[in-house]
Amino acid sequence: MTPPSGVVLLTDRLVARGGLDRVVAGAVAGGVRWVVLREKDLPRAERAALAVDLRAIVADVGGTLVVAGPDPLGGDAVHLPAAGPYPPPTHSLVGRSCHDETELNRLTTEHYATVSPVWPTKTKPGYGPPLGPDGLRKLIRISNVPILALGGVETPDQVTACVQAGATGVAVLGALMRAKDPTQTAAALTCAYAEAVTPKPQKPGAESARSPRVGLRPTVPTQGSSLTARSGHGRPQPQRATKENQ
Predict the structure, then answer these.
(1) Residue 187 and residue 183: Cα distance in Å, rounded?
(2) What three-state secondary structure class fits 112?
(3) Is residue 220 in some structural domain?
(4) How far apart (Å, rounded) are the C-alpha atoms in residues 214 and 19?
(5) E-only strand ranges, the chain
(6) N- to C-terminal Cα distance for the chain?
(7) Given phi > 0 = left and psi -120 to 50 = alpha, else beta, which region is 101?
(8) In this structure, are residues 95 and 113 in contact, taking their beta carbons and an 8 Å threshold?
(9) Among 29, 167, 181, 194, who pairs with 162 as Cys (CB 3.0-4.6 Å)?
(10) 166 with 143: CB under 8 angstroms?
(11) What digits encode the pLDDT tens for the residues 112-157?
(12) Which residues pair with 97 in a beta bridge?
């Protein structure tokens, strides 16, 4: 299973404006394709029933429901706390909450991790200190798995900053749970993510103004990635013989 990317929604029914189902459905309509079900205070039966409801909402758009904790509640994707369990269970998708280098270095078979808090967060006031984009970038550089930025992500500019730091996505709780219009908020955040990961087209004439450098090959667009070089394309061809130079 592919690790989460883009805008990932974390649930909190206690602050969900207008009800959790409404917020999740609105966020999905705005482009969210990953939802992490928290609600750990609920009895398992109630939580499992909620998982069925939310899984149906994201399944309609090909999305994925991840369950916080080792029990996938009928699915096969979980997100574990930094404290455990170790070793992680063998589900198709396993994530882990991390906050520093020590916790990242303990990862073994996990498929991704969240790093937090990037900014001060209303959900956990006083939790930190915040990493900021620079601290996030440092942890991403030492990580062996894709990283989602978590904590205080509320604006498109913050989404952009996280992507520029190397995050494969952002995990968002308060900005979507408390939103008056979760669809509009989700659309703004997912649009910012899409723009941040889209290669910027080169301005016309930018390359021609430079002197050619030996060994460079032209780059061509490839699906799902930035501009990359393809072997053999654009190599200088040997000069053909003509009557004049024979």
Answers:
(1) 6
(2) strand
(3) no
(4) 61
(5) 6-10, 34-37, 64-68, 77-80, 93-98, 112-115, 147-150, 169-172
(6) 61
(7) alpha
(8) yes
(9) 167
(10) no
(11) 999 999 999 877 665 669 999 999 999 999 999 999 999 999 999 9
(12) 114
Residue 113 resides in a domain: yes
Residue 12 in contact with residue 182, Cβ under 8 Å? no
pLDDT 10s digits, 72-94: 999 999 999 999 999 999 999 99
Q: What is the CATH number of the domain that holds 18?
A: 3.20.20.70
Does 161 fall in a domain? Answer: yes
Residue span of the structural domain in which 62 resides: 6-197
**Backbone angles phi and psi of 197, in degrees to 5:** -95, -5
Asked whether the whole model's pTM tops 0.85, one would answer no
Query: Tens digits of per-residue pLDDT, 162-211?
Result: 999 999 999 999 999 999 999 999 999 999 999 999 998 877 765 544 44
What is the total count of domains within the chain?
1
Side-chain-side CA neighbours of 42 within 13 Å: the count stands at 19
Q: Is residue 239 in a domain?
A: no
